[in-house]
Design a protein that fits this description.
flat, mainly alpha, 2 helices
């Protein structure tokens, strides 16, 4: 297993104000290359956390 040492590196939540996936990903990798997050762009209609992850939760349609 690879050893990880954060050394006070920046991290992100993943939500960016972009609508272009390539631009958002490039920004994420530029500033957090060692600890990238999954890029989410909540300004896009299907980039809502509930819409993306609610499918499959028992009791919810």
């Amino acid at each position: 297993m690879m050893e990880f040492s954060g050394n006070c590196l920046p991290t992100t939540i993943g939500s960016l104000p972009h609508t272009d996936a390539r631009e958002a990903t490039q920004l994420m990798l530029r500033y957090t290359p060692h600890i990238p997050a999954w890029v989410q762009m909540p300004k896009l209609p299907k980039e809502d956390m509930l819409a993306q992850f609610i499918e499959g939760i028992p009791g919810l349609v």
